[in-house]
Amino acid sequence: MVSRAFLLCLCCIWTRLADGLDALSSVAPQTSDPNGKAGRPDFSRYLNIGDGTSLEFEFPEKTRGVIVVSSKYRNDSWKEAVSVKSLDTNVLTILNVSDSGSVGVDRSYIVSFQSGLAGSAPLLLQLLDLNKDAQPVVIEERRDYIIKVAPDDKMGTPSFGGLAHFSENPLLFALLPLIFINKCAFGCKVEVDVLRGLLKQPHPVLLGVVGQFLVMPLYAYALSRIASLPKALSLGLVITCSAPGGGGGYLYSLLLGGDVTLAISMTLISTVVATGLMPLSSTIYSRLLNVHETLHVPFVKILVTLLFIAIPISTGMAIKCKLPNISRILLTLIRPFSFILIIGGIFMAYQMGASILANIQPQIILVGVTVPVFGLLLGYVMAAVARLSIPLRRTVSIEIGVQNSLLALAVMQLSFRRVEADFASQAPFIVALSSTSEMLLIVIIHFIYKKFKKTSLTDQHSHT
Question: TM spans, by residue (predicted)?
Answer without folding.
Answer: 204-222, 234-253, 260-279, 299-319, 339-358, 364-386, 428-449
